[in-house]
Design brief:
The complex is a heterodimer of chains A (234) and B (150). Chain A is mainly alpha-helical. Helices cover 62% and strands 6% of the residues of chain A. Chain A has 8 helices and 4 strands; from the N terminus they run ββααααβαααβα. In chain A, the strands form 2 sheets. Chain A has a two-stranded antiparallel ribbon. Chain A has a two-stranded antiparallel sheet with strand order 2-4. Chain A is globular. Chain B has 150 residues and is an all-alpha fold. Chain B has a single domain, classed as Cytochrome c/b562 (Four Helix Bundle (Hemerythrin (Met), subunit A)). Helices cover 68% and strands 0% of the residues of chain B. Chain B is elongated, with a radius of gyration of 17 Å. Classes of the chains: A mainly alpha (234), B mainly alpha (150).
Chain lengths: 234, 150
């Protein structure tokens, strides 16, 4: 996560690859599925809510795997650093001319970890939650009583509100970078790359496709085990 | 405002207020019974005799008394925490109609459970769910989702 120079208009521009396809796809799929879960929860469309929740679990498991086996900027080792590193970065936050970070910046790293943790907490609580009528319930709710399932449903709701706060903070940071620091963080998350003053010194180290296939298979197995595993063997 | 509340509050007597907690407990039992059935139907081997049939019976039996649990005065005007909306008594004909429809579905549900056909019971479970929801959509405060019910 080294700093790279901001674009120099006199130099020949070059394309810097930052995010690989799977990382971008997981990011935007997560956006869509969280929106679907929000909408379906409010509208009481709980069957849709359940399937969207399973999709989110699949993404989170795959993202965790990708954090160890994925391309360079997706790896936790690339962006998760100690508190000192974060403080050093935070001290430069007010500077408008600070350099772009390659991949997640040190504060963005906190955002990624908190986001993944809170999403996992919301999904985890949802797995045990029971709706007030007993008509729909999370796939692991067989392990808890109706009353406990209801309590967990309320916690599921409460933690979703925390998730909304984290998302709001994330969006505020993106707007701050765009307006104050003139750094567009959204476009690279769509295109995968950013134009910089050449030559490119650090490039994305991608990994073979089979690693993604293995990750997708692991995530699918985990989701299957959570959703159907208990019932399949009972 | 205070006068209005006091005037409305005067409608609720001890007998009506005493209905609220048992009503909540019994409705929760019905939810728990439906959950137990739903959990069981997801399994490859369904325990009909010990789980599904007795729980369908619980729902059927409780539903028979359902309309007795809502005497006038046992709504929010009683001062006791309840998600029962005043509309229950304002549009009581409709509420009673929906309650009777639910009773009919609950009886059918118990009957279908006797056939021990999981697909048929799942279909009937959806129909029963719709009957429950029809009432809950209009006559239960949406606040239940935000707060712990205890």
């Amino acid at each position: 996560m080294s700093a790279v120079p901001v674009m120099d208009e006199t130099a020949t521009p070059a394309k810097l690859r930052i995010w690989d396809g799977p990382t971008r796809l997981m990011h935007w799929l997560l956006v869509v599925l969280i929106a679907v879960c929000w909408w379906s929860g409010i509208q009481d469309q709980l069957q849709v809510h359940l399937y969207a929740g399973y999709g989110i679990l699949w993404i989170v498991v795959l993202r965790l795997y990708w954090g160890f086996a994925g391309s360079s900027t997706a790896r936790f080792a690339h962006f998760v650093r100690g508190p000192r590193h974060m403080l050093d970065y935070a001290r430069t936050l007010h500077r408008r001319d600070s350099a772009h970070s390659y991949g997640h910046n040190p504060l963005g790293a906190i955002s990624v970890l908190v986001m993944l943790g809170v999403v996992l907490a919301v999904v985890g609580l949802g797995l045990f939650a029971v709706d007030v009528d007993g008509l729909y319930s999370g796939p692991l709710s067989s392990f808890v009583s109706f009353r406990t399932g209801r309590h967990l449903a309320h916690l599921h709701y409460r933690w979703f509100e925390y998730l909304l706060a984290v998302i709001a903070l994330h969006l505020a940071a993106v707007v701050f970078y765009y307006i104050y620091k003139r750094q567009n963080l959204v476009f690279p998350m769509i295109s995968g790359s950013r134009t910089v003053a050449g030559p490119v010194e650090e490039d994305l180290r991608t990994v073979p496709v089979w690693r993604l296939i293995v990750g997708a298979a692991i995530a699918s197995a985990v989701v299957w085990a959570v959703v159907y595993g208990y019932y399949y063997f009972s | 405002m205070g006068f209005c509340l006091a005037a409305v509050g005067a409608v609720a007597g001890p007998a009506e207020i005493a209905q609220i907690k048992p009503r909540q407990d019994k409705l929760r039992d019905m939810g728990g019974a439906l959950k137990a059935i739903d959990d069981e139907l997801k399994k490859r081997t369904v325990d009909w005799d010990n789980v599904v049939v007795p729980n369908t019976q619980t729902i059927k039996d409780r539903s028979g008394y359902l309309l007795n649990w809502f005497p006038k005065g046992s709504g929010p005007e009683s001062g006791v925490k309840t998600y029962a909306l005043p509309a229950i008594w304002q549009k009581n004909d409709d509420f009673v109609k929906l309650g009777k429809a639910m009773q009919a579905e609950a009886a059918k549900f118990a009957q279908v459970a006797g056939t021990k056909n999981p697909d048929a019971l799942r279909t009937e479970s959806t129909a029963l769910g719709k009957a429950c929801k029809a009432c809950h959509d209009n006559y239960r405060s949406p606040d239940y989702e935000k707060e712990n019910e205890d």
